[in-house]
Amino acid sequence: MVVNNPNTQGGHWLTLDENNEPTYVPNCDLRVARKVGAAPSVTGVDGILEKTGLNIWKQNGIARIAIHTDRREGENDDEMVKRIIADHKTLNKDAMTYGTYIHDQAEKLLNKQTPDDEPFVAKLGEWIEENVVTVYWAEKTLLHATGLYGGRADALVELKGQDGRFLLDWKSQKFGYRNGKCSPHWYDSYVRQLAAYADCVGVNNIRPRIASVAINTVAPTLPVIKIWTEAQQANALRQFMLVAELWCLLKKYDPRMVTRVANPKPKAKEAIAA
């Protein structure tokens, strides 16, 4: 199912700076992007697809809050529903904030900087020490060669026991329990977005392999890696490129057909809140 609503128009947009390097455009939306020739982010493009797993997670979360929420005196149904949804949005925002925190700590660990003294971060550090052999970069802004899309990738590394370079994507999440074991969830969007980032990375014209690294937010346990096969990566890239074509048609805007503007500064009336 395709989701085409105003929320999929916002998010992050990219262009090239005066040094021909990818950079984010501040205070940008689709209207401004058309004017300055900005490209959408990977997540923005992929956002036009319905995320079944994410929707189930949201529904379950709202249901759990509703079960444990008492009606306030004089509160009607509509007011209570709004309050429950607002509470869930707060939890979702907290989860996103923690995800950003984990990304920041992973960048410090990969760059041999001192991370926070925190149990979850310590487990991530153990995993990196055991599995990462070489770090080429951490947290890099990318723009596809065609100008179709861009985004910020987590890390390009070499892994112990694996040939070639790997593009890693940190995924903080609540691990599930299956057959008595604590295990992560793997979603199609993970591999699709990673494959898109890998297509932006030129290493002797060879795409790096891709891997998702799930970080448990329930308890400080070692992260779990999912190395996607070359066939899965190729199929996911094909999916993403088809989605990107659909994105262009739905938005009536093809970023490949415009000229990038160095350090665009939209007029105040065109800007939206960051």
Quick overview of this protein structure:
This protein is an alpha+beta fold and 274 residues long. The protein has one domain (6-270): Lambda Exonuclease, Chain A (Alpha-Beta Complex). Helix content is 39%, strand content 21%.
Oligomer: single chain
Instruction: Please write the CATH class name.
Output: Alpha Beta
Range of helix content: 25-40%
Stated plainly, the CATH topology is called Lambda Exonuclease, Chain A
Describe the strand arrangement of the main beta sheet, using strand numbers: 4-5-6-9-10
Give the structural class. alpha+beta
Q: Mind explaining what this structure looks like?
A:
It contains 7 helices and 10 strands. With 274 residues, it is an alpha+beta fold. It has one domain (6-270): Lambda Exonuclease, Chain A (Alpha-Beta Complex). The strands form 3 sheets. It has a 5-stranded mixed sheet, sandwiched between helices. Helix 6 (188-198) crosses helix 7. It is globular and about 65 Å long. Mean pLDDT is 85; it is low at 1-10 and 267-274.
Task: List the keywords.
Lambda Exonuclease, Chain A, globular, alpha+beta, 7 helices, disordered N terminus, 10 strands, three-stranded antiparallel sheet, 274 residues
